[in-house]
Amino acid sequence: MKNFEISVLDLAPVKQEKSIYDTFQDSLSLANHTESLDYKRFWLAEHHNMESIASSATSVLIGFIANGTKKIRVGSGGIMLPNHSSLVIAEQFGTLESLFPGRIDLGLGRAPGTDGLTAQALGRNPAIINEQFPRQILELQKYFSKENSNALVRAIPGEGLDIPLYILGSSTDSAFLAAELGLPYAFAAHFAPEQMEMAFNIYRQNFEPSKYLDKPYIIVCINGIAAITSEEAHRISTTLFQAFINIVRNDRKPFAPPVDDMDDIWSPMEKTMVLQKLKYTLIGDQAEIEEKLKNFQSAFNVDEFIINSHIYDHQKRLKSYEIFKNAKDSIFKV
Questions:
Q1: Residue 24 in contact with residue 227, Cβ under 8 Å?
Q2: pLDDT tens by residue, 55-103
Q3: What are 221's strand-pairing partners?
Q4: Residue 128: what pLDDT?
Q5: Do the Cβ atoms of 122 and 91 come closer than 8 Å?
Q6: Between vectors from CA 70 to CA 326 and to CA 190, what angle results, nearest 5°?
Q7: Burial of 180 (0-12, 13-18, 19+ CB in 10 A)
Q8: Within its chain, how far is the Cα of 124 from the centroid?
Q9: Which residue among 77, 173, 261, 296 is the one 20 to 30 A from 166 at the CA level?
């Protein structure tokens, strides 16, 4: 079984009875904690018009986290590129890389990260997204290149900087694109598990080596909820279940504390829908997490797990990431 890296996805979750200021302080605390545990990277995801998620100004929040840490890589998982001008993103991440050299990642997605009406307010044109997204990636590569120094439009800061790009996806479309461009690929199995295995196969089979990457590199994002006991892990996971019920019901309210019985909240149909979306969620104590990580890795052979943990109590969220790191180290006897 191949060894793998372990990283963090943070959506800057807003909890009931907590302020957005509290949310950002919790994100920084989590970054400091996971940095001390030698997690590889800490990514933040662009979302809009959601009371439950405060990472809309993703580049700003990346700067806040990078400034409060020392060595962990910080970046986007991802920037929803068609929401923005390529030049603006090149300048923003050029600024971040200039401030925090060697620590900034730029993960890129094509989805809006929001509802249709808000997507319109962001200025997206859905009719051209599938041609716009690949073109914008090439534009970013041009703006970051030294060869662009003679162009009439330049990204300053940004030009000549080594800012790694990652292609994000929740279906097979971006797997083809990441393979064609020879870039690393991150799959959103934490909310869209249905096409994960097919996307991995497409990416591996079609990968073209590039100056950026000589062989495929796969990151999988999963939900992870760990605790000292299995019973506690399953109880605190009900915050995650409630968050997905809210998605099903189109209710964007802040995250709720755990409950004793989800059957008091969801209908049988909603339960089926949520559990299907959370197919690759790993829940349990350390021994269970070890076994589930090994089973997943034996089946899919990924290069990196990036873990999203919707846990209401901040200290229990920190403990969950500690257990995941201990489980990973135990597998490989570090």
A1: no
A2: 999 999 999 999 999 999 999 999 999 999 999 999 999 999 999 999 9
A3: 306
A4: 86
A5: no
A6: 50
A7: middle
A8: 22
A9: 296
